[in-house]
Specification:
The complex is a heterodimer of chains A (95) and B (178). With 95 residues, chain A is an alpha+beta fold. Chain A has helices spanning 8-15, 19-34, 84-92, and strands at residues 3-6, 44-45, 52-55, 62-69, 72-79. Chain A is 35% helix and 27% strand. Chain A has a five-stranded mixed beta sheet with strand order 1-5-4-3-2. Chain A is globular and about 35 Å long. In chain B, helix 2 (27-35) packs across helix 5. The two termini of chain B are 38 Å apart. Chain B has 178 residues and is mainly α. Classes of the chains: A alpha+beta (95), B mainly alpha (178).
Chain lengths: 95, 178
């Protein structure tokens, strides 16, 4: 079970979210801590950001993490956009 | 040198992807859908090329920050870049939805007046919107990479509380007020 550090940059973004979006982000982080390999997290390396990973989501906020050590991840940002869903659906046919 | 790379990233990520769909809904595209189906290959190649260039430039920016030296203004520039690109996403999102609606209406008319052309146009439309969406998704992920870069260089980076127990983590996040 990895340790999670909540960096100030994340808390700033997190505080800017609505209550329901905060709850969703909190639930994702909880799931990540319990089982980082859970497929529902869509956990993957972030493009062009060495050492960084994404808890990905089509419809909700995406969470950026940085791996500090094998056992410690820093959560550094979160956010989303309501168009991503539509783009994923369109691009899905192509990929 | 950080500034020139920031400018390159700004120009690349704000390139008018809608140029891909210019003319969607026009008679000329209907003709070309029928006579030159290769047009969509061009848009697909454009996205592949754009993706590679955009990634290379963001990689270069990450390297430029790593090489330093980083001055306060470089962080402000990165903040402005991210804000500008986020505004671009809002704009692109509106344009995308508007074009979807326009071309849907046009397709409906075409189905009534020229069913043979409608099939070719529909296929062309799907491909072009698919390419547009693909580029837009890459762009949105590159903005996340820039946000990760920005977070790394904040003076308070690395100072957060550490949680090694999901219940403590959940309780803490629940207590964070808006």
């Amino acid at each position: 079970m990895p340790a999670i550090r909540l960096d100030p940059s994340f808390l700033l973004a997190f505080k800017g979210l609505s209550k329901s979006r905060r709850e969703w982000v909190a639930a994702r982080l909880r799931l990540f801590q319990i089982d980082p390999s859970d497929k529902a997290l869509r956990f993957r390396a972030l493009r062009c950001a060495p050492g960084h990973f994404l808890i990905d989501s089509v419809r909700y906020d995406r969470i950026i993490l940085r791996r500090e050590t094998d056992d410690l991840y820093a959560v550094v940002d979160c956010g989303g956009h309501d168009i991503i869903d539509a783009w994923e659906a369109r691009a899905g046919d192509e990929r | 040198m950080i500034e020139p790379v920031i400018l390159e990233v700004m120009h690349r990520l704000n390139e008018p992807v809608p140029a891909l769909v210019q003319g969607l809904g026009s008679a000329s595209l209907v003709r070309s859908a029928r006579t030159r189906p290769g047009r969509t290959e061009t848009s697909s190649r454009w996205v592949d090329h754009w993706t590679k260039r955009a990634q290379d430039q963001v990689d270069a920016l990450v390297r430029a920050y790593a090489a330093g030296p980083i001055e306060a203004d470089h962080l402000a520039q990165l903040d402005r870049l991210i804000a500008l690109l986020d505004a671009g996403t809002d704009e692109t999102s509106k344009t995308y939805r508007r074009y979807e609606k326009l071309t849907k209406g046009f397709l409906k008319q075409l189905r009534a007046s020229a069913p043979a052309d409608a099939a070719a146009f529909a296929a062309q439309r799907d491909r072009i919107f698919g390419d547009w969406a693909r580029a837009a998704l890459v762009r949105s992920e590159l903005i996340l990479a820039l946000r990760a870069l920005r977070a790394r260089y904040r003076p308070d980076a690395g100072t957060g509380d550490i949680f090694d127990n999901p219940d403590d983590l959940t309780a803490y996040l629940r207590g964070v007020a808006a």
